[in-house]
TrEMBL record:
<dbReference type="Pfam" id="PF00155">
    <property type="entry name" value="Aminotran_1_2"/>
</dbReference>
<feature type="domain" description="Aminotransferase class I/classII large">
    <location>
        <begin position="172"/>
        <end position="343"/>
    </location>
</feature>
<protein>
    <submittedName>
        <fullName>Aminotransferase class I/II-fold pyridoxal phosphate-dependent enzyme</fullName>
    </submittedName>
</protein>
<dbReference type="InterPro" id="IPR004839">
    <property type="entry name" value="Aminotransferase_I/II_large"/>
</dbReference>
<keyword id="KW-0032">Aminotransferase</keyword>
<dbReference type="InterPro" id="IPR015421">
    <property type="entry name" value="PyrdxlP-dep_Trfase_major"/>
</dbReference>
<dbReference type="InterPro" id="IPR015422">
    <property type="entry name" value="PyrdxlP-dep_Trfase_small"/>
</dbReference>
<dbReference type="InterPro" id="IPR015424">
    <property type="entry name" value="PyrdxlP-dep_Trfase"/>
</dbReference>
<dbReference type="GO" id="GO:0008483">
    <property type="term" value="F:transaminase activity"/>
</dbReference>
<keyword id="KW-0808">Transferase</keyword>
<dbReference type="InterPro" id="IPR050087">
    <property type="entry name" value="AON_synthase_class-II"/>
</dbReference>
Length: 345
């Protein structure tokens, strides 16, 4: 039954039209619904007329477009970082950062870290996030080693939980720490759209590095690294960065022009979440401030489908992992959509 939506002829937005029936779509990761926004699309077309949809040179080429530097400066400002780097995908920037810093010191992975940050096989942690933080701080403070690379996601988008990294400020100042955090599902949404960078602990002994895909809330096929200027300058010397194709200049043009669009859509999303959560939705668990609502009920997808509602339902991260059923709200949904969903639940 899931497979009937596997070969759509167009991108879903608020609804999906299939076989003469309209379904309300509560899935995906386009939290701000930015791809369906007419103003954003117009900026994409303007950018395409000026630059084309792709740029056929690497970032090491002697001929460069100014928009890449402009977009990196704007990304640093919007996401409250000192400096930023942009490349073609979130997966690429995650691998760029974790491989570049893999020799910095001992690597400590958190629970359920995204595969983009893995070095080889899946890290085995076996702890809750809170227990992992306590154990990690205790271990580092007692260790004879001096340098550590701590790697984790900013939140769990599958079993919704927003993570608090404050306790890492209790690491002894004699240690040198890099916090490498993937904020792909938080950037543009959490912390008033700024993402997690400014909320991470920092100090003379702790450096923050945030990587993120911009293809979710921001609607752009690109990846960003946020860090201080020294780290960004180091990463820009990497062969991975220099040899990779850059993001679409047309989409970066739209990113530069659309600050007010993102703000309006985020406010709409926040309003939708408040409306939905005020009714205390049955059978769902969630983290306030994040628009994903998970269920342990494996039959929910099929039951809602009969009511004309499509939610996210797939095995993740691999085909052998358990089925994940999640309701995802975005800024395109109306109060009528949400009321109908609540009635069906």
């Amino acid at each position: 039954m899931v497979d009937i939506f596997a070969e759509l002829a167009y991108a879903p937005s608020r609804t999906i039209q299939l076989q003469d029936r309209e379904y309300i779509f509560f899935g995906g990761t386009s939290y701000l619904g930015i791809g369906a926004n007419a103003e954003f699309r117009e900026y994409c077309f303007e950018g395409a007329k000026r630059y084309g949809f792709s740029n056929g040179t690497s970032r090491s080429n002697n001929v460069q477009l100014r928009i890449y530097g402009e977009a990196e400066s704007e990304a640093a400002k919007r996401f409250a970082a000192e400096s930023a780097l942009l490349s073609s995908s979130g997966f690429l920037v995650a691998q760029l950062a974790v491989r570049y810093f893999s020799d910095f010191g001992e690597i400590i992975y958190g629970p359920n870290t995204h595969p983009a940050l893995w070095l080889g096989a899946k890290p085995q942690v076996g702890l809750s996030f809170d227990d992992w933080v306590k154990q990690t701080v205790k271990y580092i403070n007692a260790s004879n080693k001096k340098r550590f690379l701590i790697v984790n996601d900013s939140l769990d988008n599958l079993r919704p939980q927003l993570f608090d990294f404050t306790s890492f400020s209790n690491i002894d100042e004699s240690k040198e720490i890099i916090l490498l955090i993937d904020d792909s599902h938080g950037i543009g949404i959490t912390h008033k759209g700024r993402g997690i960078y400014m909320s991470l602990p920092t100090g003379p002994h702790i450096q923050r590095v945030v990587v993120a895909s911009l293809a979710k809330a921001m609607g752009i096929d690109a990846g960003v690294v946020l860090a201080d200027e020294k780290i960004i300058s180091q990463l820009k010397t990497s062969a991975v960065f220099l040899a990779a194709s850059p993001p679409s200049p047309a989409l970066l043009y739209a990113f530069l022009k659309s600050e007010s669009v993102y703000k309006r859509n985020r406010e709409r999303l926040e309003s939708n979440m408040l409306f939905f959560e005020a009714s205390k939705p049955t059978g769902l668990y969630y983290a306030t401030g994040f628009p994903v609502y998970a269920t342990e009920n494996p039959e929910l997808y099929a039951k809602l489908l009969k009511k004309g509602i499509v939610i996210s339902s797939f095995h993740y991260p691999s085909a052998t992992d358990p089925l994940m059923n999640r309701v995802v709200i975005n800024s395109l949904h109306t109060e009528e959509d949400l009321s109908y969903l609540l009635a069906c639940l």
